[in-house]
Design a protein that fits this description.
The chain is of the alpha/beta class and about 250 residues long. It is about 45% helix and about 15% strand. The protein has a 7-stranded parallel sheet, with helices on both faces.
Length: about 250
């Protein structure tokens, strides 16, 4: 599909160094949006921005750790200096570190909560004035949070990860109630099994093997599948808010 309504918009995508974030940034840029690429791996972002530029798009690489408030604030300044106000924000940064709760992995719990939930909140707070101003000026304004089907389904040993995604899903619903009357759309995307780097961060060999087995049996979604959903959602007329999209591989559905 072509998403001509994206032309001229200014987007921020977190988690843009790989997976769904990278695919989303590339697709938005391909359809005429100026895109700020936010993630920790600056070298990776530079290469993605270079590729987008070579394809005729505009992209700004910004090294950001969403768990650090000062770094997020600095990123906002860089984005504003380069592009001005933002009218589209995609919260794609996330980490999945499953282990039994009985193992007591405080390090993993803290990292997931700080990235998946608190990090998303920091990004929302940072760019919310831009979204409200864009909507107030009659432009389309979108906040997209990438949650997970884990917000609803129960998977053994994924308790903390699923809890962070359930919180993000509920946050999206509450923000919709707050921001909808101000013409800011809030969309919550909940992918099922998707072929990204998330699984490579797992340090539990048994759980890593289970995930690989699921992928082989089910056939995961691709990051491009999710990017396409985000581009479709954010290019609808401003009066249309696709509030929640659950996307599962056919064999997982």
């Amino acid at each position: 599909m072509t998403y001509s309504a994206l032309r001229g918009r200014t987007a921020v995508v977190t988690g843009a160094a790989s997976g769904m974030g990278e695919a989303t940034a590339r697709l938005l840029a391909a359809h005429g949006a100026r895109v700020a690429l936010l993630a920790r791996r600056e070298d990776r972002l530079a290469g993605i921005a270079e590729t987008i530029g070579a394809e005729g798009g505009r992209a700004l690489p910004v090294g950001v750790d969403v768990t650090d408030p000062a770094i997020v604030a600095s990123a906002v300044e860089r984005v504003h200096a380069a592009y001005g106000d933002v009218d589209l924000v995609v919260n794609g940064a996330g980490v999945m570190l499953p282990n039994p709760v009985a193992d007591g992995r405080d390090d993993e719990w803290t990292r997931m909560i700080d990235t998946n939930l608190t990090g998303a909140l920091r990004v929302i707070r940072a760019f919310l004035p831009d979204l409200v101003a864009a909507a107030g000026a009659g432009r389309t304004a979108d906040l997209v949070n990438i949650s997970s089907i884990g917000a609803h389904l129960t998977f053994p040993h994924y308790a903390v990860y699923s809890a962070t995604k359930a919180a993000l899903t509920h946050l999206s619903a509450t923000l919709r109630a707050e921001l909808g009357p101000r013409d800011v759309r809030v969309t919550n995307i909940e992918p099922g099994l998707t072929d990204t780097e998330l699984g490579s961060h797992i340090d539990n060999a048994e759980l890593s093997g289970q995930l690989d087995g699921m992928a082989a049996e089910i056939g995961p979604l691709t990051p491009d599948d999710i990017a396409d959903l985000i581009a479709y959602t954010t290019s609808r007329p401003a009066r249309v808010n696709l509030r929640q999209v659950i996307a599962l591989p056919t064999r997982q559905a």
